[in-house]
């Protein structure tokens, strides 16, 4: 004769403290990100006052002289920035004195 044992309760769903912590942390992160997504009304008003349009930026670009520009190289990692700046100043001074 076969003895029938009842199934163990909770064998399929084992929830640990780590799972609860992850659930709480995820909820907190979602709530905080929703608060960040909302725009502050004072910031919204400040952005409305700043009227930078595509046309105004295009006018600035048209006014600038794009044909006469100078490529300025920054110092490499192994170079001292002060000596490079000093050399540039001397070269600029020599160029202006010519």
Q: How would you concisely characterize the structure shown here?
A:
With 98 residues, the protein is an all-alpha fold.
Residues in β-strands, percent: under 5%
Largest sheet: none
State the helix count: 4
Mean pLDDT: 81
Distance between the termini: 113 Å
Chain oligomer state: single chain
Percent of residues in helices: 55-70%
The succession of helices and strands, N to C, reads HHHH
Over all CA atoms, what is the radius of gyration?
Answer: 33 Å
**Shape by Cα distribution:** elongated
Low-confidence stretches: none
Report the count of strand segments.
0
Keywords:
98 residues; single chain; mainly alpha; 4 helices
Topology of helices and strands:
Layout: H1 17-37, H2 41-49, H3 54-63, H4 81-97
Keywords: Membrane, Mitochondrion, Mitochondrion inner membrane, Transmembrane, Transmembrane helix
Family: Belongs to the COX16 family.
Pfam families: COX16 (PF14138)
